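hey all, quick one before standup. I had two proteins in the batch that finished overnight and I want to keep them in one place so we stop losing track of which output belongs to which input. First protein below, input sequence then structure tokens straight from the run.
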Amino acid sequence: MKLRQKICLSLCILLTMLLLCGCELELASPESLIQPPKSNQEKLQQKQLITSFLGREESLIVPEALNTANAYQYLDLDMDGDEEIVAFYTNRESNFMLGFLILDQSEEQWYLRHKAIAYGTDIHYFSVRDLDEDGVVEILLGVNTGYGSMKELYLYQLHDQELVDISNGDNITYDQITLAHNEANGNVIVTARMDTSILEGSSNITVYDYTYGSVVPIYDETFTGYCSEMQFDQVGVNAEGVYLAMRHNHFVNVLLLQETQEGFAVVMEHPLPYDYDTMSENRLFQDENNDGILEMISLWAPELNDSTKSYDDYIQVWLQWDGQEGLIAVDAVLESYNDGYRFSVPLAWMDSLYYDFRSQDTIVWADFYAENDNMEFETVFSIAAIDQLVWDNMEDTDAMVVLGNNPTKNKIYVAEIQKEEFNGFQVDASRLISCLQIEGGERK
């Protein structure tokens, strides 16, 4: 008997025995082979637990404006060392009813401790902070009202096991909001309310202090422009403040609000001459050089832009408050997200250099040039990101220096050095390589 016939006969005998024994031959379905990871399973169980405390018409929501994209958070609200669950919900049968739940544990069982009800279309802001530093936290809930860009702030406090609305029905309205530190009394609330009824537009900036159970305005001033962004942070050595971005037509006026001995006041004002709304990748304020101090972005424009480069591709100059009424540059970066590199222009070179964007076939060059002793402009060096395939087929590359490569982006970064010295500064390949940072690649 051939081997193939023996195998078939054995399979038939095995199947007959299974049928005579009354057993069923069950094939595993794809669903039974796929088990969710433990972390996902725990997350599902947590969601089911929280949902069990909601009404039939209620569901969890993820507030889009919050930094943590989650429908619930673990927070120690009563400072007893154990975390509670704060979950955000909305009423599906009402377009304006929403709020949050506070779930606590007793004898390893979760129960509904508090439920806050607010009215709006979405949750815009949420923070838990001991505003007056008395050992009891306040809960701040900001909601979109549905009326233009206006929001409304609810304030709560956990008092004698009860969640008390300390807004007293007089909720603060705002368009932008942040918390700032008050050296004397803990934390203050800073808001901006915009007036769009006039052509130029204006923003009312108010600082609220929470003392003795009441929210009291301690600073109120109106400025021209729309306040599109505000951020509190350290703005100098041993100095804190709130940066305000006041947008006008085609420029942004930046104000620095700081607490002084006489109270809160604007201590610095600086216009940025670009419409930063068109910039997709860059934040207006951030700690660019990781020194713990907040900087603001400004753009160094090319003298000529013979390319498709936009504001996103201009050299970014990061400015830091000088402690008086001015700003100093702490970084200057030519950055291309699409090409995967950052080129830091030495700050000492900035006062002597100019630059252009120049297109040559499929390559876009950044040409840096300076004025010589004869008051003539001469190109000092040029840099470009070249596709690997284009580079492999280029014939005239003798004058180019390879600075690095990026296998992920399939880019070769090159430089052409026309002058090795300008205004007392030395330019060579090693100096340019030290200025280059490559995402997922390597320098030469």
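OK second protein, same deal, sequence then tokens:
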Amino acid sequence: MNELEKYIKECNLVFTKTLNANDFCRVDFAGVENIPVNTQDSIKLIDIITSFNKLYIAFKKEYDKLEKINLGENVEVISFKKFHFDYENQDIREVILYINKPTFTKHNSTILYLREVDGKIKPFISNNINPFDKNYYKENVSIDEQFAKRYIDFFEKYETFLKAVNFLRNWEVFGDCVDYLYVDIDNQQENILNGLNKLRISICNGFCLINIFLNLGENFGTDYDNCEIILDKKKSQGAKEDYDYILNNIWVNKENTWKKEKQSNKI
């Protein structure tokens, strides 16, 4: 077992909750090489990322073919929601979009709700601030109904993908006083309607930092040129085989994914 394999083994013992940081300090600690990693309640991180990329490819292909209208200079999807409003006994579906320099209102930017209530399109805009604020507004707007329905249907179909983006965005997979595992997409600046580019995996402790970048989309794979290993404050490019080994051997306990999934389901 070389130093990299030993380090990844040590990380896995912690990320899978086989051991905790204090166990390594015990007098009778058997050594990293001699303790098996319990993967029974864990999943490989690369399997999560690979599944996400497949969802992204399907989403992007269909979105690019989707008939659109000019809503503004920049459009970002915030969420899709489907719910039953008990008070008025209504079934509601809605796509929430952030629009910069919209074409359909005088506001410099706004949040557009493409809302369908019992099959009828009822779009409106708001700035989503405190309703008691003097600058608050909520206004009905005229948006092409066929366009609105296309978007609502489309984002309902890809609701799982939207949650997956939220799942992998700014995800602290694991963190304690020693070891840390973090995942993010496009440095938290992603706009899925314009396309995604990179996913970053960071693994670190007090003496080692590993950053691995993956290209998203049809050219999915490791961007070796931007990956790095910093060991004892010395930065190195690292070998392709090293990054391949790391990617294919990082496990995380499913409890960490369940916690993040609960957060993602709130979008």
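Flagging for whoever picks this up: Residues 46 and 247 are 6 Å apart (CA to CA). The radius of gyration is 23 Å.
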